[in-house]
């Protein structure tokens, strides 16, 4: 493991009864970056994050976080981790200040050090005017900012966040990401997200599906390797354009998006941009006024990665490997399982 790597996983697996939630996960995650975990519902994202936070027992050939082996005692590791689960977990009856004081006592942060840290965090999050308000009376965005502040208070080496911006307004999302960008200067930030713009803002991404890591890389690297070409076709009836475009043999997918149809073309089948746009301009039953080719975006990238998982599953079935087929099948959103208490 390199000196900058905070997380190293080899062959990591996690079962909930007969259900395999994580299957042969291999990851190396370097320090001081925002590492995003993306994938469909039920992919195993929450299970992976809970594992990294030392909350679940796992099987692995190797599994180290901040130098601690996840297969052994992890009490000391938890002191180095800030964890923000999907559900708000702070005491709703306590005020903002009281919740932070409670966390400070757990981490033995006292006096002027506590005052300095909380003042800076609250001011940057815009929560300073609300320190006396009960946590349960905060808006959704404020709750999430408080949860992140609470996790940042002990200055963790690793910050783990499970879809922290889900359901919050645009301004709160921007403020949360400003906080995460600042935290990256002194820690590794691992976050799961279902927002395309947030995935694009990560330094590195891992696409997880059916408990397996399908691909890793920077957003640019993943986009550059996308086996799809992206086109837009403008016209009076975008839905009609999308329906007609799906009949073309090289089109992977098409949908209406406002005044234009968004069309993905398989790169290995494409006749070339000129021919694709000529075909789009002459679609039967759809009047295309203008078409253009675009660089692949994050939506096309994740769509292609999802398709790659389906191709891998099909290849496994062709080999007749019952074990591979089981691994490729979607495990669903399995929660619970055996938790750690050390």
If you had to describe this structure to a student in words, what would you say it looks like?
With 342 residues, the chain is of the alpha/beta class. It has two domains: 217 residues, P-loop containing nucleotide triphosphate hydrolases (Rossmann fold, 3-Layer(aba) Sandwich), CATH 3.40.50.300; 69 residues, 2-Layer Sandwich (Alpha-Beta Plaits). The protein is 36% helix and 26% strand. Strand 12 and strand 13 form a beta hairpin. The longest helix is centred in the C-terminal third of the chain and has 22 residues. About 8% of the residues have low confidence.
Describe this structure in a few short sentences.
By secondary structure, the protein is of the alpha/beta class. The protein folds into 2 domains: 5-221, 3-Layer(aba) Sandwich (Rossmann fold), CATH 3.40.50; 227-295, 2-Layer Sandwich (Alpha-Beta Plaits), CATH 3.30.70.100. It has helices spanning 45-52, 75-78, 96-106, 111-125, 140-152, 170-183, 196-201, 219-224, 238-245, 273-281, 298-319, 322-328, and strands at residues 5-16, 19-30, 34-38, 62-65, 68-69, 81-84, 158-162, 188-192, 204-209, 212-217, 228-235, 251-257, 260-266, 288-294.
Q: What is the arithmetic mean of pLDDT?
A: 89
Query: Helical segment tally?
Result: 12
Cα shape: globular
Can you name the CATH architecture of the largest domain? 3-Layer(aba) Sandwich
Q: Given this structure, which CATH class of the largest domain is correct?
A: Alpha Beta
CATH superfamily of the largest domain: P-loop containing nucleotide triphosphate hydrolases
Instruction: Calculate Rg over CA atoms.
Output: 23 Å
Helix content: 25-40%
- End-to-end separation: 25 Å
Show unreliable segments. Answer: 312-338
Number of strands: 14
| Strand-pairing-aware structural class | alpha/beta
Question: How is the biggest beta sheet arranged?
Answer: 6 strands, mixed
């Amino acid at each position: 493991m390199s000196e900058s790597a905070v997380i190293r996983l080899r062959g990591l697996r996690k079962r909930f009864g007969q259900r395999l939630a994580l299957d042969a996960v291999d990851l190396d995650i370097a320090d001081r970056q925002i590492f995003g975990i993306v994938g469909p519902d039920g992919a195993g994202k929450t299970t992976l994050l809970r594992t990294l936070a030392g909350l679940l027992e796992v099987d692995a050939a190797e599994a180290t976080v901040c130098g601690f082996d996840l297969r052994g005692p992890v009490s000391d590791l938890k002191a180095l981790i800030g964890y923000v689960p999907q559900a708000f977990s702070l005491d709703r009856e306590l005020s903002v200040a009281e919740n932070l004081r409670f966390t400070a006592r757990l981490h033995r942060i006292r006096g002027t050090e506590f005052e300095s840290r909380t003042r800076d965090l609250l001011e940057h999050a815009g929560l300073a005017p609300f320190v006396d308000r009960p946590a349960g009376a905060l808006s959704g965005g404020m709750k999430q900012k408080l949860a992140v502040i609470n996790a940042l208070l002990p200055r963790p080496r690793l910050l783990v966040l499970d879809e922290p911006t889900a359901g919050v307004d645009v301004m709160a999302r921007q403020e949360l990401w400003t906080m995460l960008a600042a935290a990256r200067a002194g820690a590794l930030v691992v976050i799961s997200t279902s927002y395309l713009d947030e995935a694009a803002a990560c330094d590195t991404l891992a696409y997880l599906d059916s408990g397996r890591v399908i691909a890793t890389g920077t957003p640019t690297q993943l986009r550059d390797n996308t086996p799809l070409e992206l086109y837009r076709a403008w016209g009076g009836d975008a839905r009609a354009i999308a329906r007609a475009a799906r009949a073309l043999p090289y089109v992977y997918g098409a949908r209406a998006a406002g005044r234009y149809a968004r069309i993905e073309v398989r790169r290995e089948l494409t006749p070339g941009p000129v021919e694709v746009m000529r075909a789009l301009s002459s679609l039967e039953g759809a009047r295309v006024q203008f078409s253009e080719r675009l660089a692949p975006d994050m939506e096309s990238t994740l769509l292609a990665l999802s398709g790659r998982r389906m191709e891998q599953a099909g290849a496994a079935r062709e080999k007749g490997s019952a074990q591979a087929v089981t691994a490729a099948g979607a495990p669903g959103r399995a929660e619970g399982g055996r938790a750690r208490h050390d």
